[in-house]
């Protein structure tokens, strides 16, 4: 009788808990796998809650903290938190959800380990030239060679070069790549510091900080960048800042781990911006 009671307790109470725990771990394993696949130059695998680097370093994936405020997510994220919102490619049909900014959350030590710290002059040693729109413009821009980022940007550049002349004003001139600076209004290093980002189309750019919030305090979504351009960047591992609630539509950044990700739909606190 006692045994049957315990068995019942196991089935009703403990079994579902085990299931939930293993399901979450499986999701996290898939995300770590995604990182290993995206950065094979540096990562060799993962074990438990750690990413294993080729130099033997182990880095914690999940800090175990849930329900972070949005600002905490940006300022003190774990690697897992970088997947807090899904990145969905394809034509933009609706404004992003409040605080859905897939890619804005960056665990800085992860990127510094690969691309170097620009404040110490480490990133500049990795820079190479990329010809921007070889037929239509033909001047050099700088990008990091680490992780093949410059190579991917060359492919993007050659494909953009094939687009009809109606796209020229979005592409010529480019609006900047490498820049060792913090993100406007924050203390966080920009992806331009890692030389993994490019801005385009200054004249057609929309940025949430330049927009007045509406009466509910929400930033109305704005974008002028054509989907054809976005598609070419995404095909080669670059995400687009136009998919963020805090949009930055001129901004593209090499983040292959996020493309077409479901994200962990993490437990970020629902709140007004
Ligand atoms: Zn940018």
Write up what this structure looks like:
The chain folds into two domains: 1-59; 62-258, no CATH class. It contains six helices and eight strands; from the N terminus they run αβββααββααβαββ. It has helices at 2-38, 70-75, 108-115, 149-160, 168-171, 227-235; strands at 43-47, 50-53, 58-60, 127-132, 139-144, 197-199, 238-240, 251-254. Strands 1-2-3 form a three-stranded antiparallel beta sheet, covered by helices on one side. It has a three-stranded antiparallel beta sheet with strand order 6-8-7. A two-stranded antiparallel ribbon has the order 4-5. Mean pLDDT is 89; it is low at 17-23 and 263-273. Bound molecules: zinc ion (ZN). Zinc ion is lined by residues 192, 197, 199, 251. Residues 192, 197, 199, 251 line the site of zinc ion.
Name the features.
three-stranded antiparallel β-sheet; 8 strands; binds zinc ion; 6 helices; disordered C terminus; 273 residues; single chain; 12% strand; alpha+beta; 2 domains; 28% helix
**Hetero groups:** zinc ion
Describe the sheet with the most strands.
Answer: 3 strands, antiparallel
What form results from the Cα inertia axes?
globular
Number of strands: 8
Please work out how many helical segments DSSP would assign: 6
Q: How much strand content do the residues show?
A: 5-15%
Q: How much is the radius of gyration in Å?
A: 21 Å
Query: What is the count of distinct domains?
Result: 2
- Mean pLDDT across the residues is 89
Structural class: alpha+beta
Poorly predicted segments: 17-23, 263-273
Share of helical residues? 25-40%
How far is it from the N-terminal to the C-terminal residue, by CA?
A: 56 Å
């Amino acid at each position: 009788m006692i045994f049957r009671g315990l068995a019942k307790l196991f089935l009703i109470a403990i079994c579902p808990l085990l299931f939930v725990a293993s399901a979450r771990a499986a999701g996290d394993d898939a995300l770590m796998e995604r990182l290993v696949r995206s950065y094979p130059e540096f990562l060799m695998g993962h074990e438990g809650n750690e990413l294993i680097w080729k130099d033997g370093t182990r880095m914690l994936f999940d800090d175990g903290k849930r329900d972070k405020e949005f600002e905490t997510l940006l300022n003190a994220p774990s690697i897992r938190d970088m997947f807090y919102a899904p990145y969905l490619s394809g034509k933009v049909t609706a404004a992003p959800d409040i605080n859905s900014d897939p890619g804005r959350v960056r665990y800085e030590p992860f990127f510094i380990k690969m691309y170097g710290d620009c404040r110490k002059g480490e990133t500049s040693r990795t820079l190479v030239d990329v010809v921007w729109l070889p037929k239509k413009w033909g001047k050099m821009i700088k990008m990091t060679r680490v992780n093949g980022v410059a190579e991917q940007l060359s492919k993007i550049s050659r494909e953009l070069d094939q687009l009809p002349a109606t796209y020229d004003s979005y592409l010529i001139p480019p609006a900047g790549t490498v820049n060792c600076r913090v993100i406007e209004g924050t203390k966080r290093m920009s992806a331009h510091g890692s030389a993994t980002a490019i801005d385009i189309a200054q004249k057609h750019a929309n940025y949430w900080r330049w927009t007045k919030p509406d009466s509910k305090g929400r930033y109305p979504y704005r974008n002028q960048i054509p989907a054809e351009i976005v598609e070419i960047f995404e095909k080669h591992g670059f995400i687009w800042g136009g998919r963020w609630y805090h949009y930055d539509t001129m901004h593209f950044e090499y983040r292959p781990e996020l493309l077409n990700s479901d994200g962990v739909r993490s437990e970020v606190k629902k709140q007004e911006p």
